[in-house]
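Appendix B. Chain record.
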Amino acid sequence: MHLNEMVSQRFGTGRARSAAVVAALGFAAVLGTAPTAQAGPGCTLTLCSTTVNDSAYGVTAFFNWCRGGDSTGDSTATEPKCASDGVKQKTQNLTARGGHTPYSQDWDAFRVDAGWCYKVKFIRTGQPQFTRTYDRRGTTALWVKVGDNADAHVLDQGTASCP
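Structure tokens predicted for this chain:
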């Protein structure tokens, strides 16, 4: 069994990715080079952005984020429709209680549906985790950025009140 598989089984994929990044950065420090960020259709596991649906309802992930200068957790009310590195925008429906974007691909955003309130935890390797609530009750949908090397976990959703 490989180190990443053992760490994944023990701690989950977010921590396995963190361990892999620490190991890669340590190795790069010895060699004097560091890995570069990836965007587009493929990425290295440690630099991909992913969305995980831990809630009881579905979530829609978006492949491309279409604005520059934004950080993980930033949002826009404008649907991202751009292509990136020649890849057209695509979506993926994430099933309740565990659906997730492919870990070997870089999925940059998810949608908070109109009329819903989402509670989301962001896990970023080497940086503090944070949780944010996106309240779209009584208003339009919102798209949220998931930056490279970040996991967005949709923890809960509701329409009557915010979780």
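Further analysis of this model is presented in Appendix C.
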